[in-house]
Specification:
Structural class: mainly alpha
Helix content: over 70%
Shape: globular
Number of strands: 0
Oligomer: single chain
Distance between the termini: 35 Å
Radius of gyration: 19 Å
Number of helices: 6
């Protein structure tokens, strides 16, 4: 009974999502996130890889659209985009003097998080 209720709940959520987003918007969003995920995982942004990631997320993407998207989005483009976004975020209000040791600890924690995040792909590639 519980599994049936969960399945029905998922269907209801999917219906609501489809009502709020067109197929094109849904595919575009899925491909955008897939491209960022592939870049962060240091994998090739190809039509096949984009479709694999989108499929794993439950989104069906037309092959021609994935192909066009892969050709238009490069690692260099995403690097520039994320650099600009992080620069905007880093330009927050200035704080007083900070300890250099705390900065090093944060950098080490971020590196550990990045290395463990690749394992979350669940063997897609």
């Amino acid at each position: 009974k519980e599994a049936k209720r969960e399945e029905e709940e998922k269907k209801n959520i999917n219906r609501r999502i489809k009502k709020t987003m067109s197929d094109f918007e849904n595919q575009t969003l899925a491909l955008s996130y897939a491209a960022l995920l592939l870049r962060d995982s240091e994998l090739e942004i190809s039509s096949a890889n984009l479709q694999k990631v989108a499929s794993a997320a439950g989104v069906t993407v037309q092959g021609a659209f994935a192909n066009t998207f892969a050709k238009s989005v490069s690692n260099e483009f995403l690097d520039n985009l994320t650099e600009k976004l992080t620069t905007i975020g880093a330009a927050g209000p200035a704080t007083g003097a900070s300890s250099g040791g705390a900065t090093e600890e944060v950098a080490e924690e971020e590196e550990e998080e990045e290395s463990s995040s690749d394992a979350g792909l669940g063997g897609l590639f």
